[in-house]
Amino acid sequence: MKQWRKWxxxxxxxxxxxxxxxxxxxxxxxxxxxxxAQHASLQVTLREEGRxxxxxRYVVATPIAGYVRRIALEVGDVVSVGQxxxxxxxxxxxxxxxxxxxxxxxxxxxxxxxxxxxxxxVRAATASAELATAEVERVRRLRTRQLxxxxxxxxxxxxxxxxxADLQSAQFSVQVAMHERSALQAALKISAGTPASAAEQVTxxxxxxxxxxxxxxxxxxxxxxxxxxxxxxxPRRLEVEVDVLxxxxxxxxPGTRVRLERWGxxxxxxxxxxHVEPVxxxxxxxxxxxxxxxxxxxxITAPRDAWLGLGDAYRVEARFILWESDDVLQIxxxxxxxxxxxxxxxxVEGGKAHRREVEVGQRSGLRGQIVAGLAxxxxxxxxPDDKIETGARVETRTR
Length: 399
Hints:
single chain; alpha+beta; Helix Hairpins; six-stranded antiparallel β-barrel; four-stranded antiparallel beta sheet; rod-shaped
């Protein structure tokens, strides 16, 4: 009896050791993170940084070269159509030094002498013309009495015409001398410090109603033709310019919905794409990589009262809504992995992992649409690693 009890104890001990060994060497379930496939709304979006700008900007420039007076307007001042913005005067004459002034005074004296000489020439030419006229009358009387020939009369008439031409020439010389003297006197009288009269000024007016956006020249001075002075625009008519990668621009079309975020207001603003420019440009990223970018122009559709604080060249963050649906079967994109050129997931069934190929539709940053291969309510493994394979025992990791 004692022997039997001894062998029974040994058998129980051996059985316990065997059970412990089997349990110890049995594969343990892999702890995994899981998620449910479920129906919910899904949006495919694109985020880029943009800035506001006034839709219609007017650069006010000088029509001709001249001397512009100091501009009193400041950035933000309200202007109306036709309001005077700046006054443009003729270019100032150069200042004379002592030598130039002495030379000019000498030329004035010479011009005065030339004028006196021209007037004396006029008196001499007048006397000659009067004598020639009298000679013509005398020869004409003799001709009527047959005491002078026709040839003598013709010569007297020709001489009278020559003296009249000399008289007119002398009179013109007087006018020329007078103008030359006036020009030299004006050069002495008008200096660089002499301001132009109001009749000589050109008034530059505002082309549109709005506010002053930029004052590019404040002080008075000489300006060339076409030099910019001010920028004028209406800050109530704002648009947003956003540069996006060219590979993303092909997915954006006019009419695409946009949400403007992180602009400083309490709520996001509704907007819509108005235009996608057909020409790209090269931009160097912060990492030094060349990127092809495209400008996308966005109109703000939110009420004006909602964005009163926005102004020109303010930063905003634009979220383009490329695709959206209210009822989409979806799972986390971290559960998807590539296999044979397609997509697959690990589904948890009966505590074991089973690989299943699925068809993926739209994808956002964190969620992906499942078109086929999965049903709502099924559990998928998130972030599967190389320990997971078909048939492997798994358990959901507690958080």
